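Session log. Operator J.P. requested a structure for one protein chain; no other inputs attached. Running the standard single-chain path with token output.
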Amino acid sequence: RSLTVCRGRKVMQVPFYRHNLTAADAAAMAAVLDTPFLTTGAVARAVEAELEQYFEVPAAAVCSSWTNGALAVLLALGVGRGDEVVMPAMTFVACANVVELLGARPVFVDVDPTTLLLDVERCRAALTERTKVVMPVHLYGQMCDMARLVETVKAVRDDIVVLEDCAHAFESTFDGERPGRHGDVAVFSFYATKNVTCGEGGAVVSRDPALMERLRRALLHGMSAGAVDRFADAYYRHWDVAELGTKANLPDLLAALLIPQIRGIDASRHQRQARADRYRAGLGGRLRFAEVVPPAVSAHHLFPIHVPPAVRDRFLHELNAAGVGATVNYRALHRLTYYRRKYGLADDALPVSSQWGDGVLSLPLYVTLEPDAQDYVIAQVNRIAAALLPSSPAPLPARSPA
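Structure written below.
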């Protein structure tokens, strides 16, 4: 970390994120270079076996990103024009984009003001005869109550598929259960800033063998055999395409980074928990937090704080000027220009999502964040809060209107 002087103050540079991969991890990638296949092969299959063991599921498939994995799942489910996918308005735009790309409609639902997770009752009210998928999002690392959500959705129609967005929640649990236990399918991200990362990548797990068989084809153009399978036993095998797919497989070259991280993720979760607890203890009472409500155990992928929307951008810029790499996760989907223009939802149509998205910002959180750097972040947040914020935070709406 470097120290500079700005506006008469010492400034420490604390990046928003820093991965903990080292040169030693490159040895696994070098080993792949000694094999004939850089693309999806034996290493990817080994990662899938690790995922099956960790999540206690019969089938897992690695993919090139959460986005492409989710797109392939929707293709495998036959989602298309006229279908609806219900999701929280407070999430990353990829959730809505994959639905739009297939000509289906994302249906935005407000979130709980305490946890910022999908409001189950609002979700039930949004279900129609056109609903094909419900997509809960385990936001910031906290899992939804999947048993309750699935029971609620299936009571309306048992053919609705529940697709868990687990991009933030690899090592999360709810009541001792991991993602993929109650949902029909769960999709993960191994993007550069995720708790398990290979720069770009993702994975899908499910207890439905038929769905996973269709998914594997959808991940690779709809082809009946990938490169490794086509050249098995040194004899070329023809492939066919019976249904539409995309290009979403993960190469062994990247998959090689994943197995040690998967095996160590529960230990690193405790390190993230300690840093999140340190933030909560050190930050003053002027801020609002997303609450982790037991029996949820959060992965603490992100540490968001909320300030009045009128000062959020100034607060963010002040932190950046002080060397703190804060960012925004996320603006509400229905407030983004494309979705506002297309679906015409009023800014206050989903008030919890709107107000949270207009005032949220995320602080640095990673296992290599050292105490002095975190103390510096805490001091800067408290300094700026004292100058810009009232003594206590205003509440979010208790519940979105019917």
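Operator note: DSSP finds 14 helices and 14 strands in the chain.
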